[in-house]
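Example record used in the benchmark description.
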Amino acid sequence: MEWSGEASVMAQHRHGESAVILTVLTREAGLIRGLVPGGASARRAAMLQPGNRISLRWRARLEDQL
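Model output (structure tokens):
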């Protein structure tokens, strides 16, 4: 399953060496959390700061994981 849309970043937490767990607020799905591989890199860290508006694509293996 795949879903895409606009979201506001609410929080981010490091997960391992290079990934982050991102909490975002969307108009369609509400508050959701997801893993962003490479999200702790210098290039992506500025984009994923709380308060930023981002365009995202959410992918899950099963529909109930969306």
